[in-house]
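INFO  loader      accepted 1 record
INFO  loader      residues=210
INFO  predictor   begin
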Amino acid sequence: MEMERVQGMFTGIVEEMGTVVANEREERSARLTLVAPTTHAGVRVGDSVAVNGCCLTVVQVKGDQLTFDAVPETLHRTNLGTLKPGDRVNLERALAVGARLGGHFVQGHIDGVGTLISLSPQENAVVMEFRVPPGLSKYIVEKGSIAVDGVSLTVAEARADTFTVWIIPHTREITTLGLRQIGDPVNLECDLLGKYVERLIEARFSQGMG
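INFO  predictor   done
INFO  writer      dumping tokens
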């Protein structure tokens, strides 16, 4: 029985790594085709799938291949424009109604592209440090949640323009975080709660000053 899914809502728990078949670039847009051996199951045209954490709409299903259109705004805010055939990507289908929420609520709306600046092995884990683009640090708090290339992670330490996370062996094995090298760009989506709190505070201040 096919599960009903909440379009445009994810958990940050990656289902598999897909493989890029083609990334057909126009001047400011692109058409991306992926092999998705597991994720394609039950997916129909019009469904939402998170690709490296970015919510994209399926425009074609052909066997185990899924095709998506990326608009200029998507390419501007994400690392999807840099993908080439053979690259691996993190995939997650939209949250199924009634399913357990193993990560945190992720919309698939990328806030910006960060950069991996250090990798430090620590016992059975690896500490990854990322530099964040201007304006995002205020949403990143110690022990808070963040999605990195669509992977739900807990912030270990937050600084002025960087943050660190601890990556366990399982996460490195089943996601692209195990393939990342220093200098690689990553998609970042900050916790939704912080954005709503900021908006509410701004609204209250503007009403008080009106």
